[in-house]
Amino acid sequence: VPSVEVRRLTADGIPALAREVDRARAAGEFRASSDPAAEFFVKSAAVDPGLVAGAFEGDELVGFVSAEFKVIVVRPDRRRRGIGRALVKIALDSERARGRPQAILGVLPGDASTTAFLRATGFAFHSTLWDLDLPRDSAVAEPVWPDGHAARPFDRRRDVGPWVRLFNAAFADHATPLQLDESFIVAGLDDPAIEDADTGLLEETVSGDLVGFSATAPVRHGGVVAERGEIWTIGVRPDRQGAGLGRQLLRWGVRRLRAIGVRDVTLAVNGRNERALGLYETEGFVRSRTRERWARPVEREAPAVERG
Ligand SMILES: CC(C)(COP(=O)(O)OP(=O)(O)OC[C@H]1O[C@@H](n2cnc3c(N)ncnc32)[C@H](O)[C@@H]1OP(=O)(O)O)[C@@H](O)C(=O)NCCC(=O)NCCS
Fold this sequence. Notes:
alpha+beta, 8-stranded mixed sheet, globular
């Protein structure tokens, strides 16, 4: 058996990652991740390779992990050799280095082998993520904003900093906390498949302060918008939550996606986030599938049964 080295990815590892992601996607091994169709993962890794760690045999990539995308994959002919364990270890190290309290990975309900692996490596069930679809014929009203507020498209020349701060404030107490880094957004702006107007910002017109946003993630191939598109995130500043702004932001996102040609609008929401789930269902979204989230605290010692 050739020796395996586990390390954070660097830019020169991206082509090997892209090949292995193609294999894994075809085998259905991305379906439990944060990016079930594996549309954004390689692009994000190209922007920030440190989001991914790889297991290498020479130049060959035989496994990878990304807690950010909640995915871990070992090539089928290399399984049951401890590579998964080694990838978990490096994922915990990098989550700890980023100040995250836990590493979270995804698994499909009923996937007995991945569930056995997660248990064996110290993970415990955390929550269920719901995938929701909006039927094509469901009417979604035009958003109405409170007096003194207006929605406008994101503008990369002035909004990056304020939007990232709003995003991180809105998600600080989320079930699986999501925190963005400004440099990541800046680097991603070079991607021709992402347009500023895919994200709407709600501002107080007098102060110019941002109080909410709706970020959509349509898929574009060569400028053509795919039939299926996602509301990636909506967020409201903590002091303005619970006053109906989220519903209006959701409507903004649905209408934006439909306006550019998306027919099947989808989104995913953590089952612990009951208020958001209720909001989406009352706007017509229907539950379709679930993905499980399993978590392991980063400080915890390895279980006694673990090797090495
Ligand atoms: C899950 C996965 C990453 C595990 O990788 P791996 O390199 O085979 O894992 P390891 O060899 O480090 O296994 C560690 C322990 O997990 C448990 N385990 C792993 N695979 C198992 C299986 N198929 N059945 C039962 N237990 C299993 C065992 O306890 C194992 O220790 P042991 O070999 O000493 O008994 C790999 O099977 C895989 O890529 N699966 C498909 C990808 C996927 O669906 N990922 C979902 C996450 S989004």
